[in-house]
Amino acid sequence: MTTLSAQNLHVHIGGKQVLDGVSLSLSRGQVTVIAGPNGAGKSTLLNCLAGLRAPDTGVVKLEEANLSVIPARRRAQRVGFLPQVPEIAWAVDVRTYVGLGRTPYIGGRGLAEPDRAAVESALEQTGTLVFADRVVTSLSGGERARVLIARALAGQPDWLLADEPFAGLDPGYQLDVAAMFGALAKRGVGVVVTVHDLQMAQRLADRVIVLHGGRVLADDAPAKALTPAILAQVYGIEARSIPGTSDPIIEIIGRTPNRSPSP
Ligand code: ADP
Ligand code: MG
Domain spans of the chain? Predict the structure, then answer.
């Protein structure tokens, strides 16, 4: 089995039910998009799936094993995580920074030959080899985004969980990153991404999970999960789906009248 699954997750933060009975089962080799409005619980869910937050109740399983009993180092080898708005504080060169992605394998010791090979492969896959000797803090937002992905890929994870990886990227870089995710899924990696851009979700996803108020409102193929009715319900927008050359195009018409804000 090659699944990452959640059973009946509940998370309560500061008097609010942030996840309210979330169950899902994700497969490797697919890109799963988690969509939903601000505050829906997407980041909290992703953190639970990465094993970085324990749910109050419910379990996350990596294949048959409860994630909470897998040693942190082993878990980090299998599940790569890209946090929302990550900070790169160290003025080190890109290659060294990407090498940090090998930490789950090497602990405190230096990189050995297989580690170096994994780093070079990650640099190559993300198109960052060309500026591998530059200092990370000098990079543009788009370059930085790809370096962060390279760091995660250096760990050769079975799963890559990325929280809003497209935020702040220009359309060209967005397409590059989307293509990278697609290529990873083709190679058998389970890619799970939170996305706000509906067109990107439609284009990128094999499957879309729509979260609303901490619950799963839809879990289906993109065209079935991102319907005008669901978009009206969760985002308070009027939209229509029109045929496009490959994927349907989601045209946003405007705010729905008398919309009710998120719960
Ligand atoms: P999303 O990523 O979908 O925007 P989050 O998972 O970040 O949603 O947050 C869901 C809800 O939980 C929000 O209402 C947010 O304010 C609240 N929340 C998340 N983390 C904290 C925290 N550490 N303290 C207080 N409230 C939090
Ligand atoms: Mg978030």
Answer: 3-226, 236-263
Q: Residue 246 pLDDT more than 90?
A: no
- On the question of pLDDT at 87 being above 80, the answer is no
Altogether, the residues listed in the chain come to a count of: 263
What residues flank ion ligand 2 with Cβ within 5 A?
42-43
Q: Where are the alpha helices (DSSP H) in 83-237?
A: 94-99, 103-106, 113-125, 141-154, 171-186, 198-204, 222-225, 228-235
Query: Which of 154, 126, 241, 250 lies closest to 196, judged by CA?
Result: 250
Using CA atoms, how far apart are residues 262 and 209, in angstroms rounded to an integer?
Answer: 17
- Bridge partners of 35? 210
Ligand 1 atom showing the smallest separation from residue 164 Cα: 2
Residue nearest to atom 12 of ligand 1 (CA): 18
Q: How far is the CA of 41 from the centre of ligand 1 (A)?
A: 6
Atom of ligand 1 nearest to the CA of 163: 2
Query: Could you say which DSSP state residue 93 is in?
Result: B
Ligand 1 shell residues, CB under 6 Å = 13-14, 16, 18, 36, 38-44
Arch. (CATH architecture) of 3-226: 3-Layer(aba) Sandwich (3.40)
| Assessment of whether the complete model's pTM goes beyond 0.85 | yes
